[in-house]
């Protein structure tokens, strides 16, 4: 095994660890380079909010190609998280003393090596120990078994929501490439345009899942991209690559 393979594996593990921590609490907006919080985020304690947000910032490298720089000084965290400075600074000091966060200059961040400890911290704050998680999982399994009969019966019924397409990643990739072939990208398209096209075809896909198809098209020399002014904002636009 080459050393570069170890780097690739570490990157994949880091992405999985980040997703496990933040998936219930945040959503990325690649165009605005912003992180939005879900209703579940509001239920976190202040330490949990700090940790989830700082971990989410590390996830930008897996969402977009270019570097996203976000200030994380106490004043910036106060503004984003709504935690007053008088309460925020002691929390940051405690998290730093416990090696859950690190300070860089005046800002704060988390290291990949701390992700497992952060996951445990959030689980403990939620009052869910490892044995409790196993019991909860077993209860879900038992409930699922009890519901099997009714589920099989329901499966025979027509799906009144059948207008919504459910496609695998490979299906979505094929759909996306068919749009390129049919000339959809002959005129420049933004990420929002592409999401609207998916929705037009009744394919409900999160905005954060779309960049990988766009970037794949660029890497395969099917699309080109450049930043253009769109309604006063500098956004990436994608277009069929000229031969």
What would you say about this model in short?
This protein is of the alpha+beta class and 243 residues long. The chain is built from twelve helices and six strands.
What would you note in describing this structure?
By secondary structure, the protein is an alpha+beta fold. Helices cover 54% and strands 12% of the residues. It contains 12 helices and 6 strands. A hairpin with a 2-residue loop joins strand 5 and strand 6. Helix 1 packs antiparallel against helix 3 (46-58) and helix 1 (3-22) runs parallel beside helix 7 (115-125). It is elongated and about 55 Å long. The model is unreliable at 6-10, 128-134 and 157-166 (pLDDT under 50).
What structural keywords apply?
243 residues, alpha+beta, Arc Repressor Mutant, subunit A, 2 domains, two-stranded antiparallel ribbon, two-stranded antiparallel sheet, 6 strands, elongated
How does the SSE layout of this entry go?
Blueprint: H1 3-22, E1 26-29, E2 34-37, H2 39-42, H3 46-58, H4 60-63, H5 74-81, H6 85-97, E3 102-104, E4 107-109, H7 115-125, H8 130-146, H9 148-155, H10 169-182, H11 191-200, H12 211-219, E5 223-230, E6 233-240
Antiparallel strand pairs: 1-2, 3-4, 5-6
String of helices and strands: HEEHHHHHEEHHHHHHEE
In the CATH scheme, what's the topology name of the largest domain?
A: Arc Repressor Mutant, subunit A
Number of strands: 6
Number of contiguous helices = 12
| Approximate strand percentage | 5-15%
């Amino acid at each position: 095994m080459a050393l570069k393979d170890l780097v690739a594996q570490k990157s994949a593990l880091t992405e999985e660890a980040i997703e496990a921590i933040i998936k219930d609490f945040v959503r990325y907006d690649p165009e605005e380079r912003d992180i939005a919080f879900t209703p579940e985020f509001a239920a976190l304690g202040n330490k949990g909010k700090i940790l989830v947000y700082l971990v989410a910032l590390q996830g930008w490298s897996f969402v977009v190609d270019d570097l996203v720089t976000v200030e994380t000084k106490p004043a910036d965290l106060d503004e984003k998280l709504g935690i007053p400075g008088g309460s925020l600074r002691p929390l940051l000091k405690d998290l730093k003393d416990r090696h859950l966060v690190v300070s860089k200059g005046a800002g704060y961040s988390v290291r990949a090596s701390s992700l497992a400890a952060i996951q445990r911290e959030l689980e403990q704050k939620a009052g869910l120990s490892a044995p409790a998680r196993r019991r909860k999982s077993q209860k879900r399994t038992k409930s699922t078994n009890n519901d099997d009969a009714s589920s099989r019966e329901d499966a025979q019924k027509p799906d009144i929501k059948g207008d919504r397409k459910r496609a695998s990643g490979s299906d979505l990739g094929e759909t996306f490439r068919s749009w390129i072939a049919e000339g959809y990208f002959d005129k420049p398209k933004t990420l929002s345009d592409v999401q609207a096209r998916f929705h037009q075809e009744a394919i409900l896909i999160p905005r954060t899942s779309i960049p990988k198809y766009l970037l794949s098209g660029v890497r395969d020399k099917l699309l080109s991209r450049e930043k253009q002014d769109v309604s006063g904002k500098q956004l990436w636009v994608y277009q069929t690559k000229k031969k």
